[in-house]
């Protein structure tokens, strides 16, 4: 059982407005990219990147964005706790996997050919 209390966040109107503005900026970036179709590509890309950066900036000021940043920080902490295998252990496990794959392929091949022989030659009597 978890010892941490479950915290339920309530979205405020300001957070919903920020998310809406971020969505509008994102859509506006795509629209501007295509509306500026007669301009040089670099101008269109810069306009798109500016609007997308604005959308990302607004998103990260909302509660949802702050939660995403917190989740990322917690994920990095958890990855640092992982005990990674040594090069020797990784090589050994890779060889085990390859050996298992070869054994299973051989098993599947022999099973298929045995069933083919039983079905076509013994039961149906077809000669090839």
Automatic annotation (TrEMBL):
What keywords sit in the KW lines? Cell membrane, Membrane, Protein transport, Translocation, Transmembrane, Transmembrane helix, Transport
Where's it found, cell-wise?
Membrane
Any one GO cellular component localisation term in the record: plasma membrane
- Pfam families, per the entry: SecE
- Listed InterPro entries: SecE_bac (IPR005807), SecE_sf (IPR038379), Translocase_SecE/Sec61-g (IPR001901)
Q: Does the keyword Endoplasmic reticulum apply?
A: no
Q: Where is the chain membrane-spanning?
A: 20-37, 44-62, 93-110
Record-linked PANTHER family:
PROTEIN TRANSLOCASE SUBUNIT SECE
Name of the featured protein? Preprotein translocase SecE subunit
Taxonomic classification = Bacteria, Pseudomonadati, Pseudomonadota, Betaproteobacteria, Burkholderiales
């Amino acid at each position: 059982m978890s010892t941490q209390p479950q915290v339920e966040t309530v979205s405020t109107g300001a957070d919903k407005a920020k998310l809406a503005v971020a969505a509008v900026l994102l859509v506006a970036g795509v629209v501007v990219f295509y509306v500026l179709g007669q301009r040089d590509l670099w101008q269109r890309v810069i306009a798109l990147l500016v609007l997308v950066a604005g959308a990302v900036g607004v998103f990260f000021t909302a509660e949802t964005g702050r939660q995403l940043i917190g989740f990322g920080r917690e994920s990095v902490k958890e990855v640092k706790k992982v005990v990674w295998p040594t090069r020797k252990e990784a090589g050994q496990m890779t060889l085990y996997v390859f050996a298992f794959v070869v054994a299973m392929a051989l098993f599947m091949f022999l099973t298929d050919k045995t069933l083919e022989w039983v079905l076509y030659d013994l039961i149906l009597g077809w000669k090839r």
